[in-house]
Specification:
Strand content: 5-15%
Shape: globular
CATH class of the largest domain: Mainly Alpha
CATH topology of the largest domain: Phosphatidylinositol 3-kinase Catalytic Subunit, Chain A, Domain 5
Order of helices and strands: HHEEEHEEEEEHHHEEHHHH
Oligomer: single chain
Helix content: 25-40%
CATH architecture of the largest domain: Orthogonal Bundle
Radius of gyration: 19 Å
Strand order of the largest sheet: 2-1-3-5-4
Largest sheet: 5 strands, antiparallel
Length: 309
């Protein structure tokens, strides 16, 4: 019995469930494999990198969906999806990111439509719909925190979690709401082993005259992909990147720096507690290998224990 890599539903002998295909496009009845192996996709990403604005450490490709051809097409312009193939340095990143983004959604975070698609060699690539595009070639104003703070790819780690707060206060239409959301994102990244949330992995978006935190992206458990990571967080919190404690996030960051009230913090922690069983079920049915699932469970349990959850 197969499991759909778009919805995680069982789909008998099919590669995708009907519901998964309809999520991509209402009239899609089948989805052809990407006509590339994982290695060929990485090469395509390298060949096209100079033409795209979505470069990064992880190979990425711009794509659009063709209902007529029933497949994703790799494009140089006007792509509405980003596709990330298997990485030759870090194992199972597509499966990892897809799972972690699903976990974020169950926690109430805003997550763009995403899933995985098979290549001709049977490998899975991660896809995510671009949240900054609409209509035909139109784009919402979106800036990441590196741009907003005058940093670059080279300096994206040279910042602190405390310094992000004035950025939210200055640019967001309703800072109090966004700071509560940012606290939730920060907690989620920590408990799911994401020690790579640097300045370029948080953005603000302006839609209909309102500036908010952009939907989340690039959320994954980087700790299970890296052997023996030395850090627990990308940007310093209270002057440190490791040996973090619950009080660093709650008493110091949430209360003292973000100025969140007791009720808001309590609601967030309670919601996390209620979501843990759903997270564990998602990990269990995910496309990660048994070994990677065990590593994910271990990090999740260790981090949750800090908060007595």
């Amino acid at each position: 019995m197969n499991r759909c890599p778009i919805t995680y539903e069982l789909c008998e002998n099919n590669k995708y469930s009907e519901k998964g295909l309809r999520k991509i496009a209402p009239k899609l009845t089948y989805l052809n494999d990407l006509p590339f192996t994982a290695a060929e996709l990485r090469q395509e990403a390298a060949n096209r990198a100079k033409k795209l604005s979505i470069q990064g450490v992880q190979p990425k490709l711009s794509a659009s969906i063709s209902v007529v051809d029933q497949k994703f097409k790799i494009v140089d312009q006007l792509g509405t999806y980003i596709i990330k193939p298997q990485n030759d340095l870090f194992p199972q990143l597509p499966e990892n990111e897809d799972l972690t983004m699903r976990m974020a959604k169950t926690f109430g975070l805003e997550v763009p439509f995403h899933g995985m698609v098979y290549g001709k060699d049977g490998s899975l690539s991660y896809f995510i719909k671009r949240f900054d595009r609409y209509g035909k070639g139109k784009k919402y104003a979106t800036e990441d925190f590196a741009q907003l703070t005058g940093n670059t790819r080279d300096t994206k780690y040279r910042f602190s979690m405390e310094k992000l707060i004035p950025v939210i206060d200055e640019f967001c239409s309703f800072p109090a709401i966004e700071k509560a959301d940012f606290f939730k994102r920060t907690l989620f990244c920590f408990v799911t082993g994401n020690e790579d949330m640097h300045l370029k992995n948080f953005s603000l978006i302006t839609k209909n005259g309102k500036t908010t935190l952009a939907p989340i992206y690039d959320f994954l458990n980087s700790s299970i992909a890296i052997k023996n990571p030395e850090e627990e967080i990308a940007l310093t919190l209270k002057g440190k990147k490791s040996n973090l404690k619950a009080e660093d996030f709650i008493d110091y960051y949430a209360k003292e720096r973000l100025l969140l009230n007791e009720k808001t913090i309590a609601i967030t922690l309670k919601e996390m507690q209620n979501t843990v069983p759903k997270w564990k079920n998602l990990i269990d049915i995910s496309f990660l290998s048994y070994e990677m699932k065990e590593k994910y469970f271990k990090i999740l349990d260790n981090r949750l224990n800090l908060f007595n959850l």
